[in-house]
Automatic annotation (TrEMBL):
<dbReference type="GO" id="GO:0000976">
    <property type="term" value="F:transcription cis-regulatory region binding"/>
</dbReference>
<dbReference type="InterPro" id="IPR023772">
    <property type="entry name" value="DNA-bd_HTH_TetR-type_CS"/>
</dbReference>
<dbReference type="InterPro" id="IPR009057">
    <property type="entry name" value="Homeodomain-like_sf"/>
</dbReference>
<keyword id="KW-0805">Transcription regulation</keyword>
<keyword id="KW-0238">DNA-binding</keyword>
<dbReference type="InterPro" id="IPR041490">
    <property type="entry name" value="KstR2_TetR_C"/>
</dbReference>
<dbReference type="Pfam" id="PF17932">
    <property type="entry name" value="TetR_C_24"/>
</dbReference>
<dbReference type="InterPro" id="IPR001647">
    <property type="entry name" value="HTH_TetR"/>
</dbReference>
<dbReference type="InterPro" id="IPR050109">
    <property type="entry name" value="HTH-type_TetR-like_transc_reg"/>
</dbReference>
<feature type="domain" description="HTH tetR-type">
    <location>
        <begin position="15"/>
        <end position="75"/>
    </location>
</feature>
<dbReference type="InterPro" id="IPR036271">
    <property type="entry name" value="Tet_transcr_reg_TetR-rel_C_sf"/>
</dbReference>
<dbReference type="Pfam" id="PF00440">
    <property type="entry name" value="TetR_N"/>
</dbReference>
<keyword id="KW-0804">Transcription</keyword>
<dbReference type="GO" id="GO:0003700">
    <property type="term" value="F:DNA-binding transcription factor activity"/>
</dbReference>
<protein>
    <submittedName>
        <fullName>Transcriptional regulator, TetR family</fullName>
    </submittedName>
</protein>
<feature type="DNA-binding region" description="H-T-H motif">
    <location>
        <begin position="38"/>
        <end position="57"/>
    </location>
</feature>
Length: 203
């Protein structure tokens, strides 16, 4: 978990402020792949020159770092608060999964990008390390819930953690904000299905 420096500030051209450039970059990275996308491609997408991009960001890697931070920062806060919070481990675990769905929906383009990286750069490796930290904290909550007798004890906690996050992350493949189900409904359903299957005494 390393501190990151903020990008350079600047007004830029109307309609192409810092946030707009980052959104366009994330969309392009998701469509073409990070490695296959250049600053020139992004400039063409936005209808600006490359210097207009560099007015806001130092490099393509700077854009990637900020996009991955957008995907990870709020989820890191959610998991950290649950790890240090009060209440039963079971209740905190359910809340983490519910909130994780809400975070993914709110940051879906950036989370999609996060799930596609492979550790080819230092920025990607740092993001993957943060994902491992999240998995470890979730597994600790699972262990605590098992120790409290709230969860079945025949499935390894590390595997439970990966399966739970896997269910949440699968939303990037099909969830659309304009679709039939809102984020709260999906979160409620996912938590109900996951924990009805995990609760002690269930088949």
């Amino acid at each position: 978990m390393t501190a990151t420096s903020p990008p350079r500030r600047g007004r830029g051209r109307p309609g192409n402020d810092q946030a707009a450039v980052l959104r366009a970059a994330v969309d392009l990275f998701n469509r073409k792949g990070y490695d296959a996308t250049s600053i020139g491609d992004l400039a063409k997408e936005l209808g600006v020159t490359k210097p207009a991009i560099y007015h806001h960001f130092d490099s393509k890697e700077d854009l990637l770092r900020l996009a991955l931070d957008d995907a990870l920062d709020e989820l890191t806060t959610v998991v950290s608060n649950a790890s240090a919070g009060s209440g039963t481990a079971y209740a905190r675990l359910r809340d983490v999964i519910h909130r994780s769905v809400e975070v993914l929906v709110a940051h879906q383009p950036s989370v999609t990008l996060l799930l596609r990286i492979r550790g080819n750069t230092a920025v990607e490796q740092g993001a993957l390390e943060r994902r491992r930290w999240l998995d470890d904290r979730l597994a600790e909550l699972v262990r605590d819930a098992v120790a409290d007798g709230a969860l079945r004890d025949d499935v390894p906690p590390d595997l439970v953690s990966r399966l739970l996050f896997g269910m949440v992350n699968s939303l990037v493949e099909w969830y659309r904000p304009e679709g039939t189900y809102d984020a709260a409904s999906v979160a409620d359903a996912l938590v109900a299905i996951a924990f009805d299957g995990l609760a002690r005494g269930q088949a």
